[in-house]
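Re: Re: token formats

Sure, here are both.
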Amino acid sequence: MNDTTKSINIPSVSIATARTGASKQIDSLGMRPMQARAYSRRGEQYLLIKSPPASGKSRALMFIALDKLHKQGVTKAIIVVPERSIGGSFASEKLTEYGFWADWDVKPQWNLCNAPGVDDPAVAKSKVKAVGEFLNSEDRVLVCTHATFRFAVDELWVASFDDCLVAVDEFHHVSADPANRLGQQLTQFIARDKAHIVAMTGSYFRGDALPVLAPQDEARFETVTYTYYEQLNGYAHLKSLELGYYFYSGSYLDAITKVLDPTMKTILHIPNVNSRESTKDKHREVEDIMSAIGEWKGADPVTGFHNVRLHDGRTVKVADLVDDSDDAARSKVLSALKDPAQKNNRDHVDIIVALGMAKEGFDWIWCEHALTVGYRSSLTEIIQIIGRATRDAPGKTRARFTNLIAEPDATQSLVVDAVNDTLKAIAASLLMEQVLAPRFDFSPKNAGPREGFDYGDAGYGSGDTNVGFNVKTGQFHLEINGLAMPSTPEAMRVCREDLNEVIAAFVQDKATVERGLFDRENTLPEELTQLRMGKIVRDRYPDMSDVDQEAVRQHAVAALNLVQEMKKSATKETSEERANTSLVDGVRKFAMDVRDLDIDLINRINPFDAAYAVLAKSMNESTLKQVQASISGKRVNLTIDEARDLAKRAVAFKRERGRAPDITSQDGWEKKMAEGVAAFARFVAQEKAQQKAQKSAANG
């Protein structure tokens, strides 16, 4: 890197896979492991499938839908996708050729995604009539967009879909927000309880920190999870995945060649025109990018791809999805990219430049590098972009995601606003580490070994290890002293399935990230891990008991902090090969270094330690100090909810220690609890005084 672009890796993710080939192995029914796992739950009325891009969710739905249509009394299957380009994933398939007992057949007139302009709301609304005709026909399967389905439900009403299967692809588009129409309609379907629903997503969290479903609705779903770790580890070709974040100063066009490697098959997303990274001329940006890597040699008349001769004499083909000034030219490029005859041709195209396209559902198996300029506002969008590069393909041994972000300038008046992109990049990095890491199975100390886990040569309970790893499922078992366990099926489900969703809400909370990164001198780790995470859990699961909320909080904090600590442990290795297996070796090493894991120890870890260490080395010192001073100056007094939470924890402290927390204690957290007790007492006294005054005024 030169002075224009500085690697900040905040914190970067690098994993190596075993390349077992397991995730693509086919059983006697023609199913891959994820599909077989989902099919085993085919009898559930409400099914949620969480699985990475390229794991085969669309075909898994076909298997499940056919069983429901032929064996479960379901009359129709309606497949709902966010945009028409994804509708092609659900086209007719001869499944019997692979061993299944029926074929997937979608009549051309019932694939409404093929209608011209169907993404336009007006056109989507006109397709409502077609949905009604389908419901009255003898045919069984329809594919349409989210927009068409929303309009159809509004006009035909929920009861018209009784005994139907409604399968919603890219389910993270749904939200519990009352303003999200599809989310509200699904709530009505669940309340009526007459339809079957299959929800599918590769990222069960949203960029706006809103829940996808209300807790009471989510509890109705049986969840099938196939992790990124299982998917990547089971590939036959892809060996490593790297994620990195880079700062640059000046124009990104001056820095692009530092991160864009033309020898790698690349999808480059240029910045949104309203972002601070944009030059406000998206067409000129594409031209400048091509000029930066080589010399333009004209466009192919058949595909519309640009031919660019690199400085080494090689010619690359660049597909421009940014230029929307000529509909015919853009359609030519899109058609060439989607040409089924070229799907397995690695040399068909080399670089795709896009702005709002080539993300969700875009299938180009050869993509090795997803390069994004400027921060995208949604964590889900980032994960979808990363998913473009994680397809397995012959000869493709490594994949990379790079986010190129403008460095905050201390001379700018909006430096704090500018650094928000950095905060968001850190949040995305932390979340991706959770998504990519093996799953955790936590239990209290001396709970005993778990079946299927390898505890190493030392043996379980020998004092040398209490950590087991299941190679097949990519899951760790760890014992944690003092760990609270969930007491209800719903809390158990959250601890088993939804910790990443809880962590996503935590790392998207701006105040939490600000405190953890830039107000460290005034912020105790427990304020983050206990108070902030506790509030996240209470807000997300308000109907849970205090016991279950605390269990979920502890499990989420343990998962988040253990991933951070195991990464730090692994990167101390001198061998690059060893360091690249950090997601497995790191947790074993950390657990061996800290033989007796304790929840209090985990609570005392700032989840943003690793990110801050790199940030402090990479960000301009004056900028860092300016941001820290600004955020420290915004510090507010305890709220009544925080004081109440501290008072509750003080009660637990007194029960365990036989004394109340001391406000003069040298231990920061004990002092904080004592301050919370005093603050809560003041709140209660003030409330009583107000009630007394109001009563006196009423009687007077």
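Second one below.
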Amino acid sequence: MKITHEELVKALQTNFGFDSFKGNQEAIINNLMDGKDTFVLMPTGGGKSLCYQLPSLLMEGVAIVVSPLIALMKNQVDAMRNYSEEDGVAHFINSSLSRPEITAVKEDVLAGRTKLLYLAPESLQKTENVDFLKGVKISFYAVDEAHCISEWGHDFRPEYRQIRDMVMRIGKAPIITLTATATPKVQHDIQKNLDMMDATVFKSSFNRPNLYYEVRQKTENVDKDLVKYIKSMEGKSGIVYCLARKEVEDLAKTLQVNNIAALPYHAGMDAQTRSANQDAFLMEKCQVIVATIAFGMGIDKPDVRFVVHYDIPKSLEGYYQETGRAGRDGGEGQCICYYSPKDLERLRKFQQGKPVAEIEIGNQLLFETQAYAESTNCRRQLLLNYFGEDYTEENCGNCDNCKKTYHTIDATELLELILETIVQLNEKFKTEHIVDILHGNATNDVVSYKHNEIENFGAAEDEDETTLLAIIRQARLSGFLVKEVETYGVLKLSPEGKKFLKKPHKFEVKIEVHDEDEGDGIEGPIAACAAADDVLFSILKDVRKKLSKHLEVPPFVIFQDPSLEAMATTYPITMEELQNIPGVGVGKAKRYGEEFLRIIKEYVEENEIIRPEDLRVRTVAKDSTRKISIIQAIDRRVELDELAESKGMSMEEMLSEIEAIVYSGTKLNIDYFIDEVIDPDEKEEIYDYFKNADNDNLHLAMDELGEDYYDPIHVRLVRIKFHCDLGN
């Protein structure tokens, strides 16, 4: 089917409200409408869906879309119906429909009202559906999330490998496959399985300029930092990813007690609760979803403004996919990742016992992730290079490293000193110990091993400790040092490191320059969209939210943020003007436009702007009154978690308050709570540790006790008891 550029753009404007195509969209659509098989590799948020939605409206017959998730199908169908005046334009057939509902769908298909029919691969295999589709004119087949076909893909679905057989039984038509992630091996597997080796391949850039990338060091105050960050994003939707289900549950509770509307989501929850929490997020009844990677593929929410990784991800591919769920509408998208080397060690330990080849692959993936987290280079460049794409800009201007100021130092002599010291200690000590020696810190460990007497003790006392750490980190990334999990993270020289010691060569390291007046917040990322009148924009968002509740559809299905921003910039007051707003079009304007036009018209005529009170971040005053109330509550044996919740605090914050009270000399009895939440043997082991330890540092305690076996909350509780028993 031939169509001119002008006709295609007009169809885009009429049906979807956009004036131009993104990236390869037009070429992809033309290729498909010419009857050619098409392979689309496009990052999340790149506009894959439009590549089959628009041609389905223009071509004769109905397009069959194979999709893996019921939630994803429903979102896609709802979106298509809201772009059209005809509800029958899109349907799905899956296990969620009753027999009468399926019959009604088929009637719409036979009547020619339906242009898009979504099916799960399991539904496509059913004989009754195959027989029905044999009698229908098929315009083309679209295989969404096509990586599910490949056994080498990250989300393999065996049913997807039967799609080709079903296509041959129903009737041949062009095939378009779409995926946001496919290595060359996965791509070849998809094309071979679908017998489309001659397909035209369209590979889009993986660069998402609107996404801001930042890595933050994960400290014991990570929860406080996260709460502060999310409150700075008040009114904006976000996803927080954790590795473990228990972590998801605990973190969701922490956010809730800090007055953040957050809900958990993981595969261990029952389907009904999971679905309800997902819907609450889509309908903006909650601001934040705390989730494992089980959450994401079924979500088509374009206005997710931040994605936080509470734990370092297992691979850069997974990280890129998950961050890609931010800013899909082209607007602001902040991608924050908390990183601790201990998390990497934990992930490596999880691999122990697996086949050697699998461990090697896993370790290589983790090394790539580590290199990304610890690098001082442009984050965007590192990500794009990982996917085989060149990024030649020296400064992307929208990641933390490109916003920082660095100076380069010649670290050749310091690296020699570090390597010599490691060799002198027979490669048996960790990073912190090496730094203490070179910096001249006579810690208990250094003195106990008599390392304060070796030649290199204090040899770098004039250097900042962060500089020494940066050099060791870069030496590891450059292959001079290895840090083995099996030997508890001690530093060893690699063959390259030994060569360097014999024949040193220039070794440079970039060190961050800190401004003395530097604040503690993040520097704002680039936002792609902005309304000229932010008050009107806020009003329009409220109107959209009320309408979404009434119609029981997510707010972004009505109008996306960029459309509202355009309304708050150009003030459309007629239906014709509204249809010219990007992302509106004729169908949406007629379906939803009247209420928005009325509000905008009143606003323009009255011109009485009342600014809503700025949302304030609540802080809890740490005064003597609160301390007294905590002491009194403990005397009444109030459960500490309940006490924390009643005061709008996290458990960590409550323990900090109690520690401050105890360290100031007040004796408290929290045995009633400890006995309820901690096993007696565990309590005794932790107590014995503090009895024999040189100090009560939590980090040292967790290292000694083992963070995989002991909860830091439990360790802090027993530490409080220890101080009360012996110190007060």
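The first strand starts at residue 38 and ends at 41. The mean pLDDT is 83.
- S.
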